[in-house]
Amino acid sequence: QVELVESGGGLVQPGGSLRLSCAVSGVTLHYYTIGWFRQAPGKEREGVSCISTSGSSTYYADSVKGRFTISRDNAKNTAFLQMNNLKPEDTADYYCAASRLSMANIQTMCINLRTVDYWGQGTQVTVSS
């Protein structure tokens, strides 16, 4: 079966950093567009960052641009989200997602959740002092 397993979440102080990992099994990763989404309590799930199959194109939500970096290692079937200068408003459950569609505009995946074929179980990120 296809599985996406996130790790690396936890509690961090404002200004700190976390690196989330998404280990993918059951598929060859380089055929999939990858996205990171987050959902805070009482709020809708939103796209944070997405990356094309090769890693050549990326998209970042305005709220995280300049602070977060998405990357992928297709040889290891793993994707990453490096989060720097974390803020309390970054607190949320973070989900890794994969889409089989090849999108000319990579932001499409982050904007439209219906493009997602597989979801990870989520990992909690809490930014608090």
Number of helices: 1
Q: Tell me the β content.
A: over 45%
| Percentage of residues in helical conformation | under 10%
User: Count the strands?
Assistant: 11
The radius of gyration computed from the alpha-carbon positions, rounded to a whole number of angstroms, is 13 Å
What low-confidence regions span 5 or more consecutive residues with pLDDT below 50?
Answer: none
What integer is the average pLDDT? 95
* N- to C-terminal distance: 39 Å
Strand/helix succession: EEEEEEEEEHEE
Derived from helix and strand composition plus strand pairing, the structural class reads mainly beta
- Globally, the shape reads globular
- Biggest sheet character: 7 strands, mixed
Q: How does this structure look, described?
A:
Helix content is 4%, strand content 46%. With 129 residues, the chain is mainly beta. The strands form 2 sheets. Strands 2, 4, 5, 6, 9, 10 and 11 form a 7-stranded mixed beta sheet that branches.
Summarize the structure.
By secondary structure, the protein is mainly beta. It has one helix at 107-111; strands at 3-7, 10-12, 18-25, 33-39, 46-51, 58-60, 68-73, 78-83, 92-99, 118-119, 123-127.
Descriptive keywords:
46% strand; 1 helix; mainly beta; 129 residues; four-stranded antiparallel beta sheet; globular
Topology:
Elements lengths: L2 E5 L2 E3 L5 E8 L7 E7 L6 E6 L6 E3 L7 E6 L4 E6 L8 E8 L7 H5 L6 E2 L3 E5 L2
Parallel strand pairs: 2-11
Antiparallel strand pairs: 1-3, 3-8, 4-5, 4-9, 5-6, 7-8, 9-10, 9-11
